Amino acid sequence: MPERHTVGDVDLRRVEHFLAVVDEGTVTAAADRIRLAQPALSRQLFQLERELGIRLFDRTRGRLSLTPAGRDFVPVARELVALAERTQAAARTLAEGVLRRLVLAAPTATLMELVAPFLGTLGEEDPLVLVREVSPSRAYSALGTGADLAISPAPVTGRLAHRRLGAVLLRVYVSPDHPWSRRPTRRVELAELVEEPLILLPQDNTSRVELDLAVAEAGLAYDRVEECAVARVIQAHAAAGRGVGVVTDLPRFGARSLTIADPRGAGEAALHIVLNAAWDPAHFAAEAIESMAGRIGSFLATVDGAIR
């Protein structure tokens, strides 16, 4: 027997029967379409009119025609049925843990250099990923305001589920005419970097914090520093020979890229920042979100200069 749904005192099955009569033009044709006996359908229509408190049809000489109230009710009825169908579909999705739409919060550089290229690899069967630009320090708090997944270089604390996505190198950018551009090792030491006129991100930026910490621990100090809040502008200035830039972005504008030797590591260790993904473990689609985070991590491993 069909499941019955109501909105207030109105049985949605009767609303569907009403629309069948409107669409087919007669009770006989509608009864054939929905496979219900004609007398039973007529009783359903009378019952709907009692529930609504309005007369939907004029019944003259065995024929039905919509009353003015009935005509006004038709779009309302269609909206009710469509809403019920969407509600049932959403409930099934929640019950199955299926994710149709995912909101991802991350800093600008992560969205532009990692997330956007990753989205180009998704298929039609994957969730629609919408993004929200946040600072590294506020990425995880976005999970409490509608985001499903957050990516940030900040450490994950509290009860959040999380995983390490990988690490991204700090990149030194110079102009094609700079002597370092011809260096075979594509690598610079901290001691020589601090002697250059540098263009750096602001001090609260995660990559800048990592660089400042390494410089301090090595007992070094910057000679000259200009600050700029936009990584692409820093690259553009470096490409034009206005200074040496340090950002995590991929190469642009013809600037030459080098890595920074990490004196705290061994061998070929280079300065980098670690990207973490976090999500609410109680999310109805926590497994799907974790799977998406894993795919982003796998994609990150293919990005030039990334470290697993």
UniProtKB/TrEMBL annotation:
GO MF annotation, one: DNA binding
Keyword Repeat: no
Record InterPro entries: HTH-type_LysR_regulators, LysR_HTH_N, LysR_subst-bd, WH-like_DNA-bd_sf, WH_DNA-bd_sf
Pfam families registered for this protein in UniProt: HTH_1 (PF00126), LysR_substrate (PF03466)
GO CC, alphabetical: cytosol
Domain HTH lysR-type: 10-67
Keyword Protein biosynthesis: no
Keyword tags: DNA-binding, Transcription, Transcription regulation
Protein family according to the UniProt entry: Belongs to the LysR transcriptional regulatory family.
Protein name listed in UniProt: DNA-binding transcriptional regulator, LysR family
Naturally occurring in which organism (per UniProt): Blastococcus mobilis
